[in-house]
Amino acid sequence: MRVVSGIKPTGNLHLGNYLGAVKQWVAMQDDIQAQGGETMYFIADLHGLTEWIAPDAMAANTIEMTATLIAAGIDPERSILFNQTRVPQHSELGWLLNNVARVGWLNRMTQFKDKAGKNREGASVGLYDYPVLMAADVLLYNATHVPVGEDQKQHLELARDIATKFNNDYEREVFTLPAPLISKAAPRIMSLRDGASKMSKSNPSEMSLVKLIDSDEVIAEKFRKAKTDPDVLPETLDGLEGRAEARNLVTIYAAMSDREPADVLAQFAGKGFGAFKPELADLAVATLGPIRERLTRLLDDRGEVGRILERSAEKARDLAAPMLLDVQRTMGLQI
């Protein structure tokens, strides 16, 4: 069992990123390896190029994302952790698979339509074609399973279609068809100032999000001042209907404590936010404080983070090279 997953490099990671993705990866590392499997995580810097980003920001974001994953619990000695660019076989296989994928398949990809919006003619070819590179990302390593959310199911289906067509066209079982790995649904973390908006670093209000680099004092203050309503917490989830901010804070508490929201309500039912928010702030500080301290130490030596990426990339290249060579020989490119 080999699980492969990637994440685009973004800077200034916040609580929503941690609970929605990073924490899930750490749990997956432990669960898959307990089953005798292998986990490979990569920083999808090539995918990050589908939207304009300044070179300095791309380089910094890649290091910061790597450091964050390590600080949160991804162990480079247990999981292979690298960035795409250090393994050129990703790009090479992506081009080869472009000649297997069909235009009609890509035209059906809903994420391109969503991201390009009304300006599809002005969108980059990379944005249109990135599902093929995503297919290369997993097929390159004979991934048996790929973690998918609702927005990624279509891309995994495309990877399976490409693998099937390649195997059929060349009458060889070169590629393993990766299966979806459905994990516990990641919580959707909303703004601390508006329960109807997703937590985002693009929000102009610093009080709307908790950054992983925030101090204990700042974390506590942001939760104490988080928007709420005057009612007490209900006994059941139905009682949170129409109370977006209250639901968000309960969701955050549940996600950080590895509990169900219903269990949290059972503990705090009948209590007001004057009692609940300090408890939530203490939990957030206890959870994020150690991660921030490790992250700060790692970012004090960014060169070492780069060396960690290179050591893992060497392992990834060792796995990728035979597969790419097999594909090239199958297509008549290596004589």
Give descriptors for this structure:
mainly alpha; 13 helices; 5 strands; 335 residues; 54% helix; two-stranded parallel sheet; three-stranded parallel sheet
Question: Would you give an account of this structure?
Answer:
The protein is mainly alpha-helical and 335 residues long. The chain is 54% helix and 7% strand. The protein has 13 helices and five strands. The chain has helices at 15-34, 45-48, 55-72, 89-98, 103-107, 110-116, 125-139, 153-169, 216-224, 244-256, 261-268, 273-299, 302-330; strands at residues 2-7, 38-43, 80-83, 145-147, 179-181. The strands form two sheets. The chain has a three-stranded parallel β-sheet with strand order 1-2-3. A two-stranded parallel ribbon has the order 4-5. Strand 1, helix 1 (15-34) and strand 2 form a beta-alpha-beta unit. Helix 4 (89-98) packs parallel to helix 13 (302-330) and helix 9 (216-224) runs antiparallel to helix 12 (273-299).
Q: Uncertain runs with pLDDT below 50, 5 residues or more?
A: none
Going by helix content, strand content and strand pairing, the class is mainly alpha
Question: What is the β-strand count?
Answer: 5
What is the element string, with H for helices and E for strands?
A: EHEHHEHHHHEHEHHHHH
Please describe the biggest sheet, giving its number of strands, its sense, and whether it closes into a barrel: 3 strands, parallel
Q: What's the helix count? A: 13
What is the C-alpha radius of gyration, as a whole number of Å? Answer: 22 Å
N- to C-terminal separation? 32 Å
Output the strand order for the largest sheet: 1-2-3
Please estimate the helix content.
40-55%
Average of pLDDT? 93
Percent strand = 5-15%
Shape: globular
